[in-house]
UniProtKB/TrEMBL annotation:
Pfam families, per the entry: MoCoBD_1
GO molecular function: iron ion binding; oxidoreductase activity
SUPFAM superfamilies assigned: Molybdenum cofactor-binding domain (SSF56003)
Annotated TM spans: none
Protein name: Aldehyde oxidase/xanthine dehydrogenase first molybdopterin binding domain-containing protein
Record-annotated Aldehyde oxidase/xanthine dehydrogenase first molybdopterin binding domain positions: 7-238
Keywords assigned by UniProt, alphabetized: Molybdenum
Amino acid sequence: NIFHHYRLRKGNIEKGLKETDFIVEGEFKFPLSAHSALEPHSVICRWEGKDHVEIWATSQAPFVLQQVIADMFKLPHSNVRVHISYLGGGFGGKSDVTIEPMLVYAAKFLPGYAIKFVCSRKEVMTSTVLGRGMKAQAKLGAKKDGTFTLFQAKLYFSDGAFGDTATNIVTVAGHNSVGPYSIDNCHVDSYGVYTNTPPVGAYRGYGHPEGNFISERLVELMAKKLRMSPFELRRKNFLCEGKKNSLGETIRDYNGNLFKCLENVEKELFSEPKPKEDDRYVYGRGM
């Protein structure tokens, strides 16, 4: 059932294991989620003759929609006109082409007439796309001083009956799962799997939250194991100018300053005293 396998390889895991003093590992789950935009998916379509079609859609990607319809119906792109009004929410769920081709096909039988379709809430959840849907196993290794030595992970994405809207998500989650850290030895396998659910598409970050959820939880676990501040552990391993990320790209100063970002976050987190615990709430701080 595997339709896509993304591989990330950097360094040598066996070498990393020999340099490792501590390892933390875990299993991680990110359940399937519905975007639940206030406005459901909706389409109006009208054909003018046999080779000109006009579409009004609740889409986040009008040019993608234009290209898909032109290719499907063998039309010049200039003969497909797409209108997009203000959206009542999308969150990525309207960036993939879902119900639009069905309406274009149906309208072809009534040239000159506009037809409209508005999904019910149930139809949005069963007939468009969902988001997330991941299970993963991963481990992080470090030296006694906190220097990361290895990262290894396997990610499995439940992507429904069709994989075309999920392939890039599987890839992005794989190469982002290492996080913003300099780690010499990385071994990641990310799999897209056919399952008996609606298809999975973009949802608020397009694979980045799933991947970074893994690495950030492992960093927190490692900080506890080393009895080290999670802020200092991150600073020790952040990517910065001159270092190479998991893809082999050399970081430049214009790529951003993680140290300054973390400094600002830490400053705000501790800018006020933590409230005292009471009968209703337990208070904490986290990043």
